[in-house]
């Protein structure tokens, strides 16, 4: 290995560790921070953000990359991946003037506070200028990066390299065409009214159960932990992954499935090559791929009959009283309840995709200029009616519900639905490759699936884009058909439609 | 305020925040870190230590100080304090070559690992070279700082500015002369055998009780928290103070009094002027002063009759079963049990001072060259016999028991005993100034004492040295007599000697 390559890797290590410290400060803020200590944490994180930015935009990285790019033929295949991806990361940071970064950070903070005020007040008009300014910032950023003609593609590429509004649009149209009638069939089913509420699940026992489940699925608690936070999330890289959840006695499935979801993210991080965490060889292949891992464990695995065949006895042992009068079939139906809601984060896995398609269509129109910021609520409500059959009664359950735009995170929403598609396509392939999976699950064995994911997905880091990796593993380009087939199989059967 | 002064303060803020982040990483390591994540934390902390060192030794600080020192007459009294103390801090960091810092850090790590090996093996011979090397490093460091002729004074001054081996020696001789006979009287008392063990205290209820007690004493949980760690400690500044404790059902007084002790440290930090945490105006006046605050709340307050008069009903409510057959007098005796032990950290507040005097005498002889490292065990055992009447049966209960020397922390031990002296002298003054204290305590009111400490001690930050501050508050130079009087009053009465 050349001295220049070693320099590059050392610099990437430094940036990676600073990022990981900043991540830990953010985790601690959500999990541990005393209520009146927020000012201190704000100052600590501002300094760390500056140091992280300095390290990631260190001119020595740019110099090393230029040298290595000129001698590409001397580099191994792995080294070429590192140089290719590190160049992308470096330009993303280094091409933004410090002024611009400060302006965006300051505006994000102001917009977030505006959102926390405007959402409960249903006051879209006061929030609109903050979105407009973020839209302007996003376009300026795209121009600075050389994407002036395709600003929305630039936003998407930040989260999911290789995807464009065009590719996503094609995938989502086909998905929509199949999904809307399926949703209509399910929501018309009388089975919908048979879903029994689960109430009175002691929080301590919930914590015991979800720990047992996530550990058995394969999350490694020797390099991770789970704590309570206001919103579930997963922070950290595989060397130290912190999951969070929240508990309510009358929402036992919320904490359980959000924990399995976050553990899915965590198992992906834990499966990335540990020695390479600081370089693209050991980093995830975009948010859609990340989401595919969390969704597969949560939905395809976690909500399946086979898995509950294994876990149900223990569930009844812990929650016998609360489960009186709830049969195995009732439980399976509750775990797979499909019910329309205006709120994306409360949505079941069938409706969820429609919530995302709505946001994607809105964002596209915003960036093309076809839709003015002031007209967002009307567009939102009309699409909601078109896709899900009803209009939100107010903006806090409509256009104001999500935090994302307050941080300028346009182009992020599609990842969630793409993740569902990737999960379903990988899952179909895993079932073909490993016909014994259902038997495994029913016996409480998950190692075979995890090993398959480690080998086929995790081990590759950012070597392949998500699109290329899906095609490599499944032999076909990404398509919504496996997702539609999976939803049809599980839900049409369950709802007898 | 001049632009130069503003620059200085901004630089000090930066260094302070980096230090606070490093502190949080250390806290998280003890409290949260998953077992296999230690390597990552090591790398994170190494980078942060480097950044902290860079920030604290930033040449811009030195330049600003030089400019400000030349225009001292234009500075306010507060600004003069900042410049005086910041100069001291800056030189301590900036006068050490990076090579030396690295060598010391590397040796400390090696010595710590040697200590964890040698202590359980009773293998002093293998550990001795590590102490010898630390002694050499300490002398070199003192020389680099311009204290070549007084290396032990330099070590002391790092922890407790203003103290020297000479002043401490005088104080300790007088203390020893009074303490040794008192200890002999107490340990000869038949009351000693009446101490009843406290067993079977459920850990959950212990956590409830100590939280109630520390909150009532005045620790502000809106800017702090308490968690479980292998060893009790207090980390952070007043904007976010993290206490730790540990629980065992058969050691209820250990977790309770260590928590009160750490909360005492925490209340000092919380009492330092919040806006000035980054400058010496809002920082503590040395380890002895810090220890005086923790000891006063733990001992003078926490072990008093008046305080237990208030808390005992609640204690019995929580631990009724475990306290059956334990009278109020029994409880008071248990809380104030005096029993010889070879282990400093298990020692009662009477014997504790003898453990420190022993270490101080040893360290003095080591630095003067009178004692060779190889002869440490013999010297330790002989002093143990002289001061406490018996020799440790092995080195792990003797010279190998403490972690301090493995980190090169010579001159630190005296702080503990000086803290006891300061606590007693301040306490005597507080009682004179506030005759209603006992009545307050019996009613569960502690605000008057805390306000007195805030006004007389905390508010001053590093404006005065600990010695000067004690004299300012009590009208007399620091003396062991208040400590002897306090111990005599409490223990001679209790043990009827």
UniProtKB/TrEMBL annotation, chains A, B:
Entry keyword annotation includes DNA-binding: no
Protein name stated in the entry: Metal-dependent carboxypeptidase
Function: Broad specificity carboxypetidase that releases amino acids sequentially from the C-terminus, including neutral, aromatic, polar and basic residues.
Cofactor note text: Binds 1 zinc ion per subunit.
Biological process according to GO: proteolysis
Residues where Zn(2+) binds: 261, 265, 291
Coiled coil: none
